Amino acid sequence: MLLKFAPMTFTKLLLASALFNSGTLNTSSYIGVKSIQGLQQSDDRALRNAWTLFAKAVIAGDMKMVKQLSASCVLCNESEYIESASNAPYVSIDRFIVKLSPRIFDTNTKARLLNSKKLAFNYDNNQNKRLYRYSCVASISEFKSATIPEVLVETVEESSRSGGMQKAFAFIKTKNGYKFCGYSTIP
């Protein structure tokens, strides 16, 4: 079950997604839906398009395309690969691709990257925005107005033995479109 920790937000997100996909979502439909408040339909389409391109590149093993669709560094909770002297939890996109992508994008994860039943788009990620405040992610001018939504991929279903697991992929909106800029897991 996706987003067990925030069922009300997820329910609202599902409702908004259903409205968007049915073509009935308009600007007034965003009011009161915290998880996508202030997001324009074109932003949602742009993020979904960026995710689709990113996911297809990962599935195809096209790491050159993954790099093009990414910021020059990635916020990452894989501490053994952090390379910053300031202890900021970042790795260069090159290091991410070489060292982390084989482990993060295992067969199970790749099979779910385009499965709509295993995906959730979390637009309410601004509480984490300060974590992405590095020039390798976006310029200062881009960062001020940036939104940093996440695409959540359910990789382990909830069961009596497990609370489940999601992989979260953050994207920042830049003048060149959305760029992959962060990876974490829940839990």
Q: Can you characterise this structure?
A:
The protein is of the alpha+beta class and 187 residues long. Helices cover 35% and strands 22% of the residues. The N terminus is likely disordered.
Briefly, what is this?
The chain is of the alpha+beta class and about 190 residues long.
Radius of gyration: 16 Å
Taken in chain order, the helices and strands follow as HHHEEHHEHEEE
Biggest sheet architecture:
6 strands, mixed
Strand order of the largest sheet: 2-1-6-5-4-3
Shape: globular
Secondary-structure content class = alpha+beta
Low-confidence stretches: 1-38
Task: Quickly count the helices.
Answer: 6
Let me know the number of strands. 6
Structurally, how many domains make up the residues? 1
Layout: helices, strands, pairs:
Blueprint: H1 7-22, H2 41-60, H3 63-68, E1 70-76, E2 90-92, H4 93-104, H5 107-112, E3 119-122, H6 140-145, E4 150-156, E5 165-174, E6 177-186
Which labels suit this protein?
alpha+beta; 35% helix; Nuclear Transport Factor 2, Chain: A; 187 residues; disordered N terminus; globular; 6 strands
